[in-house]
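INTERNAL AUDIT FORM
Audit reference: QA-55
Scope: verify that the stored structure record matches its stored sequence.
Auditor: D.O.
Record contents follow.
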Amino acid sequence: MLAPFEIWRPRAEAETPLVVEVPHAGLFVPADCLALLDVPARSLAEDADLHVDVLYARAAELGASAIVCTLSRYVVDMNRSELDIDGLAVTGRRSQHAAVRGVVWRESGRGERVLRRPLSEDEFVARLRLWHRPYHEAFAALVAEKKRKFGFAVVLAAHSMPSRTDRLGAVADVVPGSRGRTSAAPAVLEAVENVTAEHGYSLRHDAPYRGGYTTGHYGKPREGVHVIQIELARRLYMDEATLQLAPDLTAIRAYCDALVVRLGALPTGTV
């Protein structure tokens, strides 16, 4: 069975306090889960953060550690709590949140049915046991390791977003999500703002995405763990009609590299 994630590690002499997390770039669906899917393949790709792992491919070379999920979020969404349950997606469970999409999705981003039928309790628990918990155990271990080595840790949760939303129309090039500036110290937010301005991209905090489970659960600045979710508008690096990477990624890769370098180089006294 394919592991649910990959860990990228830097050379010891180059290591920084940064962890890059890529929870939604994966497309793999195990056979037993595939048998329950009732959604077009295109939706599976559209609801992934396609190619974000490619954009941050130099993270380890630049001193960061990285955790990259290989599973589709239709199997289990790593950016949601295991307690975030859609009762219509799991037999015998009550909904524990207000949104349609829990840790296991019942509907796609387009509102299409994802599951042929609700998961049984055993099927649901198996997805958590096999994939969600091991991922977050490994993620938490990376964060703890950074904090032990450096006294603090910074997490860049790497995502992408459609270039337009029904509510806002065209989104900014870069949307840092920090739960209303609560999940990271001001120096982290300022570093993102500065790098974004230097590279000529537009930025808007927390709109339309304020940060998900990773941001809220791990982001504890008073305890020395700073998390910022970075959403990149997909127009910056791909053709959203064909889902193909743009022919020239020089500018966006330089931006992602600069984020990794700047966030990894924050002085101890500022975070």
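Auditor finding: record pair retrieved intact. The mean pLDDT is 95.
Action required: none
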